[in-house]
């Protein structure tokens, strides 16, 4: 058989990337990006408060701001990978959603304006999780299920 009749895995990957990105994958990337941007904005706001404002503890405000900015990198890097259809990107995106759920729960336990934020965060995290484990998303990212790692090589 010639190479034209038996396409290589590289040719199959190129064909997969040429196909349009599934809407579910794009939506998961958008939700993950929203979380990352929200963390970054919150971190910048805390830093600004720490430097310019009168926080109760300036050191805690600066440390919290830097921590949020660093944490924002995980979903933002995952977003870039999801948009580029990189299989590795689903892991960090799922971890981001799992980390968001306890935060949403704590916001829901507050007796303040944090309750709507907790509801919004919970909805975004659950929706993103559903989109990330969807078979169309998994297939678009080239992730094979357990026991199927050898299927593509036969």
What's the arrangement of secondary structure elements?
Blueprint: H1 9-18, H2 23-52, H3 58-83, H4 90-108, H5 114-132, H6 135-140
Account of the 3D structure:
This protein has helices at residues 9-18, 23-52, 58-83, 90-108, 114-132, 135-140. It has 154 residues and is mainly α. Helix 2 packs antiparallel against helix 5 (114-132). It is elongated, with a radius of gyration of 20 Å.
Largest sheet composition: none
- What is the string of SSEs from the N terminus onward? HHHHHH
SS summary, helix count = 6
**Which range best describes the helical content: under 10%, 10-25%, 25-40%, 40-55%, 55-70% or over 70%?**
over 70%
* Low confidence ranges: none
How many distinct beta strands?
A: 0
Shape: elongated
Assembly category: single chain
Q: What's a concise summary of this model?
A:
With 154 residues, the protein is an all-alpha fold. It is 71% helix and 0% strand.
List keywords for this structure.
154 residues, 6 helices
């Amino acid at each position: 058989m010639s190479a034209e009749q038996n396409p290589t895995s590289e040719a199959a990957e190129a064909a997969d990337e040429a196909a349009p990105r599934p809407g579910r994958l794009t939506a998961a990337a958008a939700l993950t990006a929203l979380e990352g941007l929200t963390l970054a904005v919150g971190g910048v706001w805390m830093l600004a408060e720490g430097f310019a404002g009168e926080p109760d503890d300036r050191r805690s405000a600066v440390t919290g701001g830097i921590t949020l900015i660093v944490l924002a990198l995980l979903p933002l890097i995952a977003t870039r990978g999801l948009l580029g259809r990189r299989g590795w990107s689903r892991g960090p995106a799922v971890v981001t959603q799992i980390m968001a759920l306890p935060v949403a729960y704590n916001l829901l336990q507050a007796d303040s304006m944090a309750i709507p934020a907790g509801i919004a965060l919970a909805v975004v995290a659950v929706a993103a999780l559903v989109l990330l484990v969807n078979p169309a998303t998994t297939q678009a990212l080239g992730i094979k299920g357990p026991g199927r790692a050898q299927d593509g090589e036969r």
